[in-house]
Every structure is written in C-alpha cells, then in structure tokens.
Amino acid sequence: MKIDWKKAIGLTAAVAMLVPLAACGGSSDGDGKSGASGTEDITLSVWAPQEDQAKDTNWLGQVEENFAKDHPEYNITWKNDVVSEGDASKQVSTDPSAAADVYMFASDQLGVLMDAKAIGQLGTDAEKQVKEQNGDLEVDSVTGTDGKLYGVPYTDNTWFMYYNKSKITEDEAKDFDTILSKAKVTFPLQNSWYINGFYDGLSLFGEKGNDADAGMVFPKDGADITSYLVDVVANPNFSNDDGASGLAAIKDGSADVLFSGTWSAADVKEALGDDYAATQLPTFTVNGEKKQMKSFAATKAVAYNPNAKNTKAAAQFAAYLGNTDSQKLHYEMRQIPPSDTSLSDLTTDDIAAKAQADTMANTAILQSGLAGMNDWWTPAETFGKALVNKEITKDNAAAKYQDWIDQTKGTIAE
C-alpha cells in the first residue's frame, strides 16, 4: 500500500511519525536552509547497487525524481554511490557517521548494523507501511532484538526449485525422492546457504531469528537425515552444484533440476524454453517420515542512517524507496520481484517470482541477522563438502553430525 503522506496527515505530523524520538540524534534541520518560498535546501546521500543506477536501468534516479516531485518542501541535492546490498554492513559499520544517509541492505546484516548504531528505527507510519505491504517472514526479517523495525523490505531473497517439465510433472515435482528417481538433479550441497534445506526442524535463534539466547537448535533425527543424504550423494542421478556447474548442466541438458533463486531465472528459462518450470521446495522421506525441504529466507530492504544530518528526510526517502509505486517500478525496470503483496498480480505470469513468493510463504525459515550466525557458515560448508567427498558414511553419520553441531555451538532438539 502506498502511503500518501500529504493526503493522509499533515506534513509536520507525517515527518514526526516517520522517525521515532529516540532516533533523532542528528539535527532536525539537517544541512538545509529555508528560502523565501518555504523550501528547504538539503543533501541526501544514497548507496545502492550499480544495476539500480545504470544508464538503461536507473531505477534509483527515477525514484529520486518522483520523491522530489512529491516533496516540494525540499530542494534536494542527491549524492549517489555504488554499494551493493551484500556489502552494505561492511561499508556502513566501518564509519557510520561517514556512511550514506539512505542505503539498501540484505536483512541478514541487521544485527551488525544495529550493533554499529548505523540503522534507524522506523517510525509509526513507516512501520505501518511495512506491515501492510508484507507477510510475517518479511516483517520478521527487519525486526531487531528489541522488537522494533529497522528497514523497509522491497524484495525477497531465497532459493527454490527450477525443473524441466518434460521430465517430471507438476505433481511429481512436489516430492524430492520421486524427482531423483526420474530426473537428473543438481544441488549445491557444499554451500552453507543451501545444506540447511534438508534439515527439517532446524531452528536458528528462535522462530523470528532474533532471540540470541535460543541459539541454534538442530533436529533430533539429524543423524538419520545425514544418512539419507549419504544415499542421495551416491545416487547416479545426483550431482553437486559447485556454484556454476549446476546452471551449466541445465544449459547442456545433463541436468533437469536446479536449486537457485530469481537471479538464475533468465538463464534457466532460455535453456529450458517451453519446458521451463519452477516451484516451491519439495518434501522428502526419511525412515518413513515425510520431511519438508526449507530454504533460508531473507529480504533486501532500505534503511536510513540515524547519523544522517537530516534524519527526517532520510527516513522519508527510505520509506519511499520501499513503497508500492517504487516496488512496481523496480519490477518494470529491472524485474526485481516485489515483496509487496498488493503487487502479486504484477508477477502472475512470472514463474520464478511466483515460486519465490510461494517458497517464502510455505517452505522457508528466516535467515537470522544476529551476529551468532557467523558460527553457522564455515562448519556448514565443511560438513557439506564432507558429504560431497563421501567422507561421511552411514557408519559415521551420527558422529559427524554431532561434530557439526559442536562446531556451531548448537544443541540438539529434545
């Protein structure tokens, strides 16, 4: 839902509600001066990915132009620089006072940004906007340990399943074991962002991913799942995706199923043509018990810097970048699927976007943004590589599983 600040409430009230009192550490006047016309001269610095600023896909520039038109009370000088969402926390936390006023970030960085006091809490109306636009998982992705919201999501970030529908039917695509029996499957098992997909019951820092005391809790039957994966790796229809080999196999026809995200959509669609299909993640069976494969889910979001000279304008623009109209424009210019549920009709014919939305809603767990997640990545990668290299066997599956848990400082569910 788009928030029309000037129509919804008076401008002064809107600005006050965008930034909570606790966040107003900077000068409320910013660096501007009011002229005779009543406009305020301000400067806003913005960090965004290169693709959003490129000549042919300058989404950022268009949104800045729209914002300026909708906010005639400001005479804005824009200072844009290239910083990707993935690099935001590193760049911002290095020196928050020198960082951009508004930036785009991956939600798993929230903990680092909060620790650096480099991300501003949303005000009442911006929080309302986020909750009206998004599902629970998206809202949780920008919720801090204090229960407050710290970003405006604009797209989801997860992985799902692409498949060749000439090899497996839509119904068969719901079950991994059936898929593996009928088609060539490639999966990045050594990748620590993917291997969790098989460990149904895994909990990382509580249901909302923001409870540090909850820690990492691994499924009780994880040793049995590990033994199951030993069989998967040994199956001649399975191949490990090293990050490039999976897509290459889809392209040359030596694989029929690929697990990836929307970033692979164009390539997979080109490779499979009329047989192109994608869906949420399938189930699989371990010792007669049905399990649900689940991906890590996160979002990409917009934040304002509480150290900005004009926190009010920065907070306004952050909310504006993530509003309905801006998300719609993002999809039209760059095919970035919106997280805004009111725009679902926009992607009706977009197979990958629908698969992503279904995965976020049904077959995903939140990727925590807490610093404790640092204990996950290397041990998970090491464990995955051991599976791929067949160093883990049915005989040592339980011991290796326990070693993995110990390395992450996790526990086993009771």
TrEMBL record:
The record ties this protein, via PANTHER family, to:
MALTOSE-BINDING PERIPLASMIC PROTEIN (PTHR30061), MALTOSE_MALTODEXTRIN-BINDING PERIPLASMIC PROTEIN (PTHR30061:SF50)
Naturally occurring in which organism (per UniProt): Bifidobacterium dentium
The signal peptide annotation in the UniProt record is 1-22
Q: Name one GO molecular function term.
A: maltose binding
Gene3D superfamilies referenced in this protein's UniProt entry, alphabetically = Periplasmic binding protein-like II (3.40.190.10)
Report the GO terms under cellular component: ATP-binding cassette (ABC) transporter complex, substrate-binding subunit-containing
Q: Can you tell me which family this protein belongs to?
A: Belongs to the bacterial solute-binding protein 1 family.
- Quote the InterPro entries the UniProt record gives: SBP (IPR006059)
- Organism ancestry: Bacteria, Bacillati, Actinomycetota, Actinomycetes, Bifidobacteriales
SUPFAM superfamilies, sorted: Periplasmic binding protein-like II
For this entry, the protein name equals ABC transporter substrate-binding protein
GO biological processes? maltodextrin transmembrane transport; maltose transport
Keywords per UniProt? Signal, Transport
